[in-house]
Structures are given as C-alpha cells and as structure tokens.
Amino acid sequence: MTEQQKPTEHISFELRKKEARTVRKVVTFTAIAFLSIGLLISAILYFYVKGGLKAYDAKDDSEITVEIPIGSGLTLISKKLEEAGVIKDARIFKYYAKFNNESQFQAGTYQLTKSMTPDELIESLKTGKVYRKPVFTMTIPEGLTIEQIGEVVEKNTAITKEEFVSYVNKPETINHLMELYPNIVTEEVKNEQIRTPLEGYLFPATYPFYEENPSVEDIVLTMMEGTAMNVTPYLDYLESKDKTVHWLLTFASLLEREATATADRESIASVFYNRLEADMPLQTDPTVLYALGEHKDRVLYKDLEIDNPYNTYRNKGLPPGPIAAPGQSSIEAVTDPADTNYLYFLADKDGNNHFTDSYEQHLINRDKYITGKKE
C-alpha cells in the first residue's frame, strides 16, 4: 500500500460510516413513523369499536320499527339494524354477538331505539321483547294516596310533589287519560263528590325509567299503563256483574287500607259484600281518615261523625271513589272473595284481624284485643 493511497482509503471509510449512520436514521425514523401510524390506526380502531359497543345515541328514545324476517341470520340482522339506524356498524355488532356466543334470535317486528346498547338489543332479539336497562327505577308502594305518590316522585326525580299533584288534577290531564284509556278512566272520576279524580288510578309497582329526567306526563302515563294492564283482565268479570272499573278500584282501595296481611283481603272483602247485601254501612276507619285528610294512629268516636261523602260510618255503600292505590292482591280479592257470613272484623295491636258474624262477639273481641277489658 503506497503513501498516496492512504488518504483516499480514509476518506472512503469515513464516507461509508456517514452513509451507515444516515441509513440507520432513515430506518429508525421509518420504523417510528410506521409504529406511530400503527398506534394511531389501532387507537382509531379501538375507539371506533368501543363507540360501536355503546348506544348509537343515548339521548334518542324515539322508536324505530325494525322487521326481522323468519330465518334471518346474524349477518342479515346486523345489516338491518345498521340500515335502520339503530347501530353504528353491522360488523362490530355481528362480531360482538359472535364473541358472546349469541345467535339464537327471534323473528318479529321490534320497536327499537338508538338509545339501546348492543347488549340490550341482543337481549331483545333473544326474548322477542324489547329490553332496555333503566337509568333508574321508582317504587310506588300499595295503599298510597295521590299526594303520597307525589312525595315518592319528588324523592326520585326533579319533579316536586306540588307539580305532580297539580298535573294529575288538571282537567286537561283527566280528559287526555279518558281518551287514551276509555275502558279504564270514565266519566265517574268527574263526580263532584270525589276529592281527587285519579285517586286509586295510578297503579303501585316498581317502574323502570330510561332517562334521567322523565316528565311528569311520562311518569303518570307509565303508572296508568300499569293500571290498564292489571285491570283489563277483569273487564269481562265487571261487565258480567254490571260493575265498573271505578267500582272495582274503589272497593279494592278499602281492602288495601284495611288488610294487614294478604290472606285477610279475601275475608275482609266478604265482610264488605255481606254488609252491602244486608244494607249495612261498611264502617271502615280508613274512609274516615281519608275524609279527615290526615293520618291518625287511632280514630276517635268524634271523628266518626264527620259529615263527608267518604265517611262510611254515616253513608251506606262504597265511598264516591278510591281512597288509595290498590295493588293486584286487593283487586283480585274483590273479584274472588272468601265465602263467609262475617259482618264484623277488627285488628288487634299486633295487626292480626279477628272476624265474626255476631255483634256480641265483635264487642268481646274489641274488649279482648283493643281496650284490654276482660270478660
């Protein structure tokens, strides 16, 4: 190797090192770029899929009719849901259903909404019924008055008791419900003697609600639907007896307020039937309390003299209307009472009812279980 060649070789070596560094930089930057793009695409896909597993529009409760033909497979069903605008992506729904081993869906016509999640849609398609997970539930216990129901509504929603009671008592509300439920809400609720027209017409139950702030109209309609569902099976019975829904709810409300146990309702119903047949006043304390408009642990003799159409001590027959919201057990007891000759009953201090067909025995029961007097 000559002296003249050494500088050239040195320059060539330095050039190769520089080129290698450049190549490494290019490769590194390219790898980072591809990795970044890959991560970006993965993130986009992740959020897209995640979004596809949520409700299309959680605030849109408008119903969309979707027809699922007999024999439809998961691919076709997913496509129909996407075309109807119920889900964002048919492929996501399809693979999600497959991943969860869900494929046995029922044909039919469904009223679905964009606010339903894939899980809710899958449950609906499996059962043939529209299923949605409620935002909250509200329980209306049996035996409450309209005002007491208003208190429950106030505790569970942004609607005040006053707003609820005011809406329920509006003539416009009553007329609207008469139009929607002509077989349930009739002109009888407009009797001038009735204190609260829709008393007893809002069915006690646990109701699901699918939005955080339902309107007072939605709440009332939900409860009215509960009444319609529970009363409609008895319409033929009422017609055969020449009775009305108003009569049924009024009678049942007395049982609801008097009974301390489910088994007693049939016996108490028999007492009231026997008294009505014998042209005797019903003489039930809850009607006096309703007439007084206040809660009392004990009804006094002077309370029994109140001049009010709801006072069944002074007036024969049923009161003008229900005094509370009766539950299914009380409604059923009216239509299927016990077969007894009982004319009297009273509840002891432990809430147990004691029945008899003799006034003398009734007085003995009173002394024994209430006043504490001995024979």
What's the structural blueprint in terms of helices and strands?
Blueprint: H1 5-52, E1 64-68, H2 74-83, H3 90-99, E2 108-112, H4 118-127, E3 136-139, H5 146-156, H6 161-169, H7 171-180, E4 206-209, H8 216-231, H9 235-240, H10 245-258, H11 264-277, H12 285-292, H13 328-335, E5 344-347, E6 353-356, H14 359-371
Antiparallel strand pairs: 1-2, 3-4, 5-6
Helix pairs in contact: 2-3, 5-6, 10-13, 11-13
Function: Functions as a peptidoglycan terminase that cleaves nascent peptidoglycan strands endolytically to terminate their elongation.
Protein name: Endolytic murein transglycosylase
InterPro entries: MLTG-like (IPR003770)
Protein architecture, described:
The chain has helices spanning 5-52, 74-83, 90-99, 118-127, 146-156, 161-169, 171-180, 216-231, 235-240, 245-258, 264-277, 285-292, 328-335, 359-371; strands at 64-68, 108-112, 136-139, 206-209, 344-347, 353-356. With 375 residues, the protein is mostly helical. A two-stranded antiparallel ribbon has the order 1-2. It has a two-stranded antiparallel sheet with strand order 3-4. A two-stranded antiparallel sheet has the order 5-6. The N and C termini lie far apart (141 Å).
